Predict the 3D structure of the following.
Amino acid sequence: MLIYSFTKFSISKLELSTLSLFILFSFQLKISSAYLVLWFLIFFVFSIYTKSTSINKFLSALVPTLLFGAIWVVKNYLINGCFIFPINSTCLNSFFWYREGSTKNIELYTSKTSIGFNSYFTDTNLNFINWFNDFFINNEFYGSFYRGFYINFLISFIILYLIKKFLFKQKHYDLKIQVIIFFFVSSSLLYLLFFGPIPRYSTGILSATIGLLGSNITSSKFKLDKKFLTIVFIFSLILLPRINSYKTMLNNFAITLPDPRFEWNYDEIELNDGWIAPKNTDICWINLYCTSEVGESIKTQNGFFKTMYREK
């Protein structure tokens, strides 16, 4: 929607409000979507410069987003002591239950597990080859999955491009639109590279790239048979699950999702009063009496809300 608004050089108040809500929702799901906020600000400046909208119209359209955003920030602060979790610099509080430095540990762990190029870029002894090897080859747990994911994307992209090239008519975007699309995709991919291109972060921009591939299609060059389209549609549905999922089903006869009570067990560290902590991981899964942060005695305070905190 953001790119579409750029390309048509105008936007209605409803579209502007919807777009800002989508960006807020993306940011709430993944803090790494922050670059969309920057592009939204660029669009704001662009709209004012081209006089396609006014400042009053723009600000009035943002009222629902600002309202929901403010509620979300307050909720964050009351739950974990941070305006934006897990950004440690936003954790400005004097709550008795907050453990100083705990958010910084989570922030560092998240950055480390994302394997972004940023830490390699700032280290003079490391380069892009080192990052590539660590991400795709030396990664014991997820290296093969990451390779399969991106190889699958590249093959799918090439196939779709060839289908578009030979079976469909296309309109040519003018230079301004081409430049906007190029900078949006390239800056998104660069941002992703620096802060961790793991699949759950990259799915959004990769899906948008596929969508942009077909954005200038006008009509088909040939009359396509309905049976052919039906076969393509069914084949596409079959390919929705990952190949590894089919392999798991055939090899292990597993046709359901694993039960975390039995199949996702982890070594436990016993704390006090029935509380435990996972060993060598930060994931508690469904255990409500599990905390990934270890330190001091864990206490529970009953009231309007039940509060779990560490006794200092």
